[in-house]
Amino acid sequence: MSRSPRRTENRTPPPAPDSPETAAIFCRGLSKQYGEVRALDGLDLAVPRGSVFGFLGRNGAGKTTTMRLLAGLAFPSAGRAWIDGMETTSANRLARSRFGYLPQSPAFYNWMTAREYLDYVGRIQEIAPDARQRQIDELLELSGLKEASRRKVGGFSGGMIQRLGIAQALIGNPPVLLLDEPTSSLDPAGRYEVLEMITRISGSRTVFFSSHILNDIERVCDSLAVLHKGRLLLVSGVEALLAQYPVDAVELELDPSGGETNAGAPAAFTSALQNLPWVASVKTEGRLIRIMVKNVPDGKRELVPLIAKLGPTVNRYEWIRPSLEDIFLQMSS
Ligand code: ATP
Hints:
Layout: E1 25-34, E2 37-47, E3 52-56, H1 63-70, E4 78-83, E5 86-87, E6 99-102, H2 114-124, H3 129-142, H4 158-170, E7 176-180, H5 188-201, E8 206-211, H6 214-220, E9 223-228, E10 231-237, H7 238-243, E11 249-254, H8 259-274, E12 279-285, E13 288-293, H9 296-310, E14 314-320, H10 324-332
Parallel strand pairs: 3-8, 3-9, 6-7, 7-8
Antiparallel strand pairs: 1-2, 1-4, 4-5, 9-10, 11-13, 11-14, 12-13
Helix pairs in contact: 2-3, 4-5
The structure holds adenosine-5'-triphosphate (ATP).
Adenosine-5'-triphosphate binds next to strand 2 and helix 1.
C-alpha cells in the first residue's frame, strides 16, 4: 500500500477570520463543565472558510465536547459558537442546515444497505426524491461505496462505515463538515481510505476534524489547533508550525535483501556513525536507522560516502524535521 494521501498543493491556510459572519466556525469563550470536570475552558477559535482544519488533542482533551457544543447537541456552560454565520449554541434549528456531523462512534441500522441508509437521511432532511437520488449516486461514488451500495451495512469494514458516515454528513451539501475522530478506530488501510476521501471533499467546503493522530492531521490539513486538558494550546498553519522546527535528523531504511551485508551493517555502521562530530545520536529499530544530527550541512556531505564505504544496502534515506508528534509532545508535556 502506498503512503497516506498528502495535500501537497496549496497548504497555505486562508487568513484567520475575525467575526462569526466571515468564519466557517467561530467560537468565543466556549466552555463546558461536567460536575467537577472542566471539559472545555474558554475556547476562542476562528476557522477560515475552505480550510481543512485539524483539531488535535489526546484522549480526554475535550474534542468531543467541543464538537457536540458546535453541533448544538450539548449546551455550553458559557460562551457562544457560530457555524457559517449562524449561532449553533442558541437552539436555532435553522443552523442545522449549515453543517454535516459525523459523531465519534456513529451508529447505523445494520440491516439497511448503504443506499437505503443515505436515502433515509435524505428523507429526514426532506430532500425531494429526484434531487435525493442524484445526491446519493454522487455520494456513493465519492465515498468509493458504489459497488457496495446494495450490501448491508452490518457487513462493512470500519473504513467503509466511516466513509458512509462522511457521506451521510454531506447530504444536503452543507458548507461545513464536523468530523469527530473519523480515523481513530481504523487500521492503516481504513485510515488511508478515509483521509483520501477527506482530501477529495475539501476545497470549497470547510472540513473540521478532530484526531489524536498527528500523522493524519499533518497529511491532510492546512491548519491545526491543539487542545490540551480543555484549553487551547496553539493555532497554526501546519506548514508554518513545521517550519519552526528545522531538519534535525536523517532516517535510513536498509534493504531486507541486503542479507549478510545488512545483517552486520547496523552494528558496524552505527558505531562508525557514533564517532562522527556531526552526529548527535543513533537509534536503530529493525531495518530503520534514525540519526539525530548536530551539523546538517556536514551530515549531508558525509553520509552518502560513508554508506558507500561501509556497504549497507539502503532502500531509502530521508532528511526529516521533527514530526508533529515530537512537537506535540514538547508542547503538552
Ligand atoms: P476522546 O478522544 O477520549 O474522546 P476527547 O478529547 O473527545 O477525548 P471529551 O470526550 O470531550 O474528550 O472529554 C473531555 C473531558 O470531559 C473528559 O475528562 C471526560 O471524562 C469529560 N466528560 C465528557 N463528557 C462527559 C459527560 N457527559 N459527563 C461527565 N464528564 C464528561
